[in-house]
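Page 47, continued from p. 46.
Same chain as before, 140 aa.
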Amino acid sequence: MEISHLIKVARGEEPAELLLKNARVVNVFSGEIEETSIAITHSRVVGLGDYPAQRVMDLRGAHVCPGFIDAHVHIESAMVPPYEFARAVVPHGTTSVIIDPHEIANVFGVEGIRYMIEAAKYTPFSCYVMVPSCVPATHL
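Result:
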């Protein structure tokens, strides 16, 4: 996927892969609901409004809301593997998480981080593993 292609689609110069028509888009900042269409290419929203598209799907007034991105989470604190954590949060709108694995890193070292990276591949949401913030643990 090239960014130049996404820009052309966003400008309406090339057709989107998919246009979701007759959507009610929830603005999570203002609480307003806008009736519009959503243009999607390469699994990315490229614009709202009328766009040329290869495929059109009529949502018939269904509500669409952006997913929540949890920007800092310690999955191991929940005492479950990443897939089980996802089962708990995805139904409530979480679509992405950024994991700080410092707890598992302090206990298992590099192997703990490798486990989190590997386990993250099998979750139904986007899962990013960051470098642990405090490894080794500090002694106060």
